[in-house]
Each structure stands twice: as structure tokens, then as C-alpha cells.
Design goal:
By secondary structure, the chain is of the alpha+beta class. It has eight helices and twelve strands. Strand 9 and strand 10 form a beta hairpin. Helix 1 runs parallel beside helix 2 and helix 4 crosses helix 7.
């Protein structure tokens, strides 16, 4: 409007010779897409963006199109449904922990955010002889991927391909990512990959060796990760999406003070 950007709709397009074209906003394991509108902007901007998206996908060469709404845009889900007329809709529960401010009592403030059970687990984890490291070498990334694949196979899930981890390491600036590793006697027992950007920590991939699970090395990493985030000015810890059927996972995240932010 008058030369200024009033809103955007990020979309990726992939053409396949046999199956046709796919549109995706956005394309990685439920990454949030949808419209980004200037705060207090004209609501007609969203309508125009969605109309344009519908025009893109309403073609016989398009096999499918996906849109995952951001947590804030989910309030406008009815507008999206009217404009895009989806054949299938699905819902997830986004979970976000609002981190306390940094001060001389930051550990007590963080503990106050946790439920009693999680607080006790975090204390137990901190009593273990774990060694904390922030690492970015080949061995650390290999441990992350291999343990992720083992963890997902153990629950009958699909692991992210090795190529995805390689691409993240190669293209995302080091300042925007952090790979924490918990070791015992020099042996890695758990790891946690997060992205760090614009006051938000994105909880991407946690892994744990099953034989050390009872010692809570992942709780050890999350606790220290949250403390580090608070001390560096981050305000939100985004746990990502949870299926409506994943009650135990939802409960785990809620124990760390996460509040629900549904999306579609």
C-alpha cells in the first residue's frame, strides 16, 4: 500500500514430472506458514493474499497444497477455510513457555514456572554427574542424527532424514542454532538442537540414549538451555506442535510451564 509492504504469504513450490506440482506454506515438519500481516493492518490484505494463493493452486497440474497456520493466525482459521476450501483439515496443539525475566534470582524464577513433578526431575538431573557442552563438530551431529533415528524407530515414528540435519548445519548461521550435548564420563548420552532467533528459542530435536533415561539427561539439557536463553534475553521457548493424541508428550511440555497455542 503506497509502496509499503502490508503483508506477505510465504509459499514453496515444487514441480514433479510425474505427480504434478505441490505448494506448501511452509514445507518442513509442520513449520508454520500462512499470512504475515502488519500489526493492526487492513484485514483485506489477508483476503487478497489468500485469493492469490487459491488462484495458484486451482489448476489441474497441482497435485496438492498445504498450509499450516501460525499460532497467531489460527484465530482467523474460518477465513482461511472459506477462502481455500480445503478437502482435509487437521489440528495440533502448539505449546510455548513464557520465560521469566533475567535477574539475580533467575533459577528460582525458572523453577517457579515448572510444575512440582518437573521441578523435582530437573533437580534430580542437576545432581547427576553430567557434563554440559555446546558442540558443533561432526561427532556431535552424528550422535544427534543416529540417536534421533533410534528414538523414532523405538516409538514406530518416522525420523527426519540425515540430509535435513546436514542442510540445517550448512545453511543456518551458527548464531541462530545451538546443539547442546550431555556427556557422562565423556560419552554422549543426550543432545538437544534448538534454533535461536528474535527472542524465541525453537525446540527442534531432542535425543536421549534410552539406558540413561531414568537419570534425566534431557531435563538437564532443557534446564540449562532455558537458563542460557533467559540470560541472553530470550522471552519464549517454543516446543512446537503436539498431536491431540499425544497426551504424555503434551503433559511433559506442560510440566515445563508450556501453555497451549492451538493451530490448524
Amino acid at each position: 500500500h503506497d509502496g509499503a509492504v502490508a503483508g506477505v504469504l510465504p509459499v514453496f513450490e515444487l514441480a514433479h514430472a510425474r505427480f504434478g506440482t505441490a505448494f506448501n506454506s511452509l514445507p518442513w515438519y509442520g513449520t508454520h506458514g500462512g499470512c504475515l500481516i502488519q500489526r493492526d493492518g487492513d484485514p483485506s490484505v489477508r483476503a487478497r493474499l489468500l485469493d492469490r494463493y487459491r488462484a495458484l493452486i486451482d489448476h489441474e497440474s497441482v497435485a496438492f497444497a498445504t498450509m499450516v497456520l501460525s499460532l497467531s493466525e489460527n484465530a482467523m482459521v474460518d477465513q482461511y477455510v472459506r477462502a481455500l476450501r480445503p478437502e482435509v483439515t487437521d489440528r495440533r496443539i502448539g505449546q510455548v513457555t513464557i520465560l521469566p525475566p533475567n535477574d539475580d534470582h533467575v533459577e528460582a524464577r525458572l523453577e517457579a514456572v515448572l510444575t512440582q513433578k518437573t521441578r523435582n526431575l530437573a533437580r534430580k538431573a542437576r545432581r547427576q554427574p553430567f557434563e554440559l557442552g555446546v558442540e558443533d563438530d561432526d561427532d556431535a551431529w552424528r550422535f544427534l542424527f543416529e540417536t534421533h533415528a533410534e528414538n523414532m524407530a523405538g516409538i514406530g515414528g518416522n525420523s527426519k532424514p540425515r540430509a535435513h540435519f546436514d542442510a540445517m548445519r550448512q545453511t543456518i548461521p551458527l548464531a541462530w542454532r545451538q546443539l547442546s550435548v550431555a556427556r557422562m564420563d565423556g560419552t554422549p548420552v543426550a543432545a538437544m538442537l534448538v534454533f535461536r532467533f528474535n527472542q524465541t528459542i525453537e525446540y527442534i530435536t531432542p535425543v536421549i540414549r534410552h539406558e540413561y533415561r531414568s537419570m534425566q539427561p534431557l531435563s538437564f539439557l532443557i534446564w540449562h538451555g532455558m537458563l542460557d536463553a533467559i540470560r541472553n534475553g530470550y522471552r519464549w521457548w517454543n516446543w512446537g506442535g503436539t498431536w491431540l493424541t499425544q497426551a504424555s508428550l503434551h503433559h511433559f511440555k506442560a510440566g515445563w510451564g508450556a501453555v497451549d497455542r492451538p493451530y490448524t
